Amino acid sequence: MTASDRSRYFVDACIEAIGTAHVLTGAHDTAPFLTDWRKRYRGETCAVVLPGTTEQVAKIVQLAREFRVPIVPQGGNTGHSGGATPDASGTQVVISLRRLNRIRDVDPLNNTITVEAGVILADIQARAEQEERLFALSLAAEGSCTIGGNLSTNAGGTAVLRYGNTRELCLGLEVVTPQGEIWNGLRGLRKDNTGYDLRDLYIGAEGTLGIITAAVMKLHPAPVARVTALAAVASPQAALDFLVTAQRYAGPLLTGFELMSDFSLHLVTTHFPQMRHPFEKKHGQTVLLELSDSESEEHGRGLFERLMEHAMEQGLVEDAVVAESLSQSQAFWNLREHIPLAQSVEGLNIKHDIAVPISRIGHFIEETDVLIAERIPGVRMVTFGHLGDGNLHYNVQAPEGVDPKSFLAEFQTPVNALVYERVHAHGGSISAEHGLGQLKVEEAMHYKSPVEVRLMRALKTALDPENLMNPAKVLPDVHALRTSRVVTEPY
Fold first, then answer.
1. CA separation (Å) from 163 to 136, 169, 254, 430?
2. Name one Pfam family in it (predicted).
3. Cα(42)–Cα(489) distance, integer angstroms
4. What domains sit in the chain, N to C, each tagged with a CATH number?
5. DSSP-derived secondary structure letter, 20
6. Vertex 328: Cα angle to 322 and 332 (nearest 5)
7. For the chain, is the Cβ count within 10 Å smaller at the N or the C terminus?
8. pLDDT digits over 455-480, tens only?
9. Contact 136, 167 (CB under 8 A)
């Protein structure tokens, strides 16, 4: 039986299992599921299947195993690395978790919320707020990304400095294994020392070891006050010195510490003129910092004033503006969150989602900026990210007047190699919060030790011996050529 025949019989079996309405095969219906958010990858599929329960997910996986149909799990399809996009063969099935969108339980006393994989991140935040709690995961795509995708990529966001990334916010999981079995690990326990930590195995695995269908997530008491400010500093190293001071003054109250280069803000205010540049004078870098206080607005502002007074006296901060209202606080965050959108309008660019030890960030930026400028005169650097946890979005924009497509075609490969070598030299990682997907698989294998790669392959082989779960993602598929169609027009 050919792969095409197996796919056809599989689709018929899926229709019988969950109904025609939830098995999409027409080109118009499947199209939204076949291109990644950045429009870098496009694939084909035998069907997009939308199960409505964990049991239906398990049934579809059982059928996929029976007919040997590879599976691509998908959440909100907001990923940056092509991890939820099928290849071009048309033989893979996309299992969308969008219909698994129920909040199963909220336990305010235990500070937990149990949610299905297809729940939108913003909906979890809103439900927590109703209980006077905080769900701390926050990122630009929170209005459309799903918690299943957040878990599968171990998403970071803007509050990692205080609350940790998605892994730290998860207590338990429900997972459908590659054999179509259901593992119920939905335990809301902070301490459970009874063997291997299967939860952490699936988080960040990008659907290559199983499909996350539900999770128990941590909640925190809602802060009573937020203090948000923009601080101008001369350089990335000055921003790091300011971070040390902010941590000394604010301690655990320091929730966010974001770095934005001057050119990043220039792009935002150019392409979104309704957003004003916060400072009249040009500065090398701008820091967006936020304190969350559980005591009172007065306490939070008093602490913040002492911090800023000391930082300006020491010459760490050149200028600053403090939000006087929630709307102004949101306006500050909008500046930060519109940087990727402004880059998109400006034209194609070379993106990097990297992590470097916090102590090395200043050196990394200064050294790598020089090397790239030597290679590409006039290049424009768009550097921003979560300075407090070492995660940078280190992006390279074409020189002004240079055709972006030609720039990308000529320089993407050598610039990636240069940046990744510098990241490795500083003890960093080439993927911080966006995952490997299919974008960085080969590069990741280059920088991992043979021992680490063998361990990863051993886990994949043990849990998914038939290699049906999101093949060629995270690890190279050694049995088949990569057939994904790469589109040369990413954001």
1. 7, 7, 10, 23
2. FAD-oxidase_C
3. 11
4. 103-221 (3.30.465.10), 225-340 (3.30.70.2190), 347-425 (3.30.70.2740)
5. G
6. 75
7. N
8. 999 999 999 999 999 999 999 986 54
9. no
